Amino acid sequence: MKRILLFFYSMILVACSASADDKETKVQIVTDLGKITVKLYNETPQHRDNFLKLVQEHKYDSLLFHRVIKQFMIQAGDINSKNAPGEMKLGDGDLDYKVPAEIVYPKYFHKAGALCAARQGDNVNPARESSATQFYIVTGKHFTDHDLDKMEQSRGIKFTPEQREAYKIEGGAPHLDGSYTVFGEVVKGMKVVRKIELVETDVNDRPIKNIKIKKVKILK
Question: Band of the pLDDT at 22, cuts 50, 70, 90?
Fold first, then answer.
């Protein structure tokens, strides 16, 4: 009888441990315009762990959203953007390592709210390795079935039903699908993302008025 009880007790512990491992970590990005909460996917563990490491080291605190494009995305993580003067061109600041690509497609794609890793282009980065620090959040635009049909024909691809529904209802940037690592998504604060998306920018897509990341913290 004791052996049976011990067996069931050990099974419960294993189940609880698996449940804890499967739980997605949430992170809050506090900006000048409000708070954005994202969850990080467990299927992209290297990107998840790298992002959490940077958060714990306060690497994102006081950095700017340095690139903002309407109906596309908002981008941050340039380590040179902290206290950067208004005339300074941003976008090249990074740490001295890359994160191996973890493209889990088509499960994770560029719907509105997708949290993705920025990277250099295929011509210099054929392995599609991600920037150590720079990330973007998709805003995108809405598509019709006709738009998606044309894209399928021109690119020789096939969208899943989930992709089609998301791109029609939520919007997104399907032209990036399968080329960049999507490692999380916004679960709260999409209105803040949209606020940032609509700010006035200069010729380099940098906001005229700085939009700062005040702090980033891991939510318990």
Answer: confident
For residue 159, give both structure tokens: 């969208």
Question: Six-digit token pair at 101?
Answer: 């690509």
Phi/psi at 76 (5° precision): -145, 175
Q: How far apart are CA 65 and CA 90, in angstroms?
A: 10
140: left (phi over 0), alpha (psi -120 to 50) or beta: left
pLDDT tens sequence across 144-154 = 999 999 999 99
Residue 45's alpha-carbon distances to 100, 183, 206, in angstroms, are 11, 8, 31
Grouping H, G, I as helix, E, B as strand and the rest as coil, residue 117 is strand
Residue position matching structure tokens 């007790």? 9
DSSP annotation of 162 reads H
By residue count, the chain amounts to 220
CA 180 to chain centre: 10
What residues contact 74, with CB distance under 8 A and at least 6 apart?
65, 67, 68, 136, 137, 139, 193, 196, 197
